[in-house]
User: Fold this.
Amino acid sequence: MSTRQVSPALRFAASIIATGLIAGLVGRACTLLLHGVEMIVWDRHEDTLLHAVEATPALYRLTILSLAGLMGAASWTLMFRKSRQLVSVSAAVSGEHMPPLRALWHASTQIVLVAMGASIGREVAPREMSAALSAWVCDHLGLNAEDRRTIVACGAGAGLAAVYSIPLSGAVYTLEILLAAMRARTVAPAFATNALAVLVSTGWNRPEPFYTVSELHVSASLSCWALLFGPILGWLGVAFRRYVHIFEDAKP
Assistant:
């Protein structure tokens, strides 16, 4: 019996379960790859990454970051040699085809570079991989366009949730950012896939905090500093984003 002969409701339910499982496995794989590279590059074992990096000489850090830049340039040059097109998560949600192998290549490169110290963020990779694989599941189950859009968005949000162990935030990201829709047909799958993804990725136990922030005491000097440097930093952020677009348009 082909999948087309199964009722749409059962196919939709199956896609929800499959997407949650896939996103959880993707999140777990990204975490293991990240920690594995950190152990090799920074000799990180029991201590935090910050302490492991601080224990290395400055020249070693510079060398690793330079090597990360060269590896990223080589990987993405090879990937874009045949095609410059890179399907974003938003485009995949809208129905554009996101090749899973290309997404895997792109995501793996990001994770390795982040582990080596590049400040490009670790959350994009699991979102892209989960979205690509969720779309693949939808295509094989023969979901209609609207259900496919919902499941791909759920996959992207669940990938984010799995890598950071944040099911509620992943569901909100799915509903508010990707789908911009609050109805039973989207809310239930969003919460189900995100909860299942986090359960698969991290289990019942909460992981250690990703970031520790020291206690901050508000003072007059700190407030004056914020008022003075806030606009400057904001302007620098706008300028940085503008130049990023300029360089993206100029790349070969």
Summary: The radius of gyration is 21 Å. The domain at 8-205 is CATH 1.10.3080.10 (Clc chloride channel). Residues 76 and 106 are 8 Å apart (CA to CA).
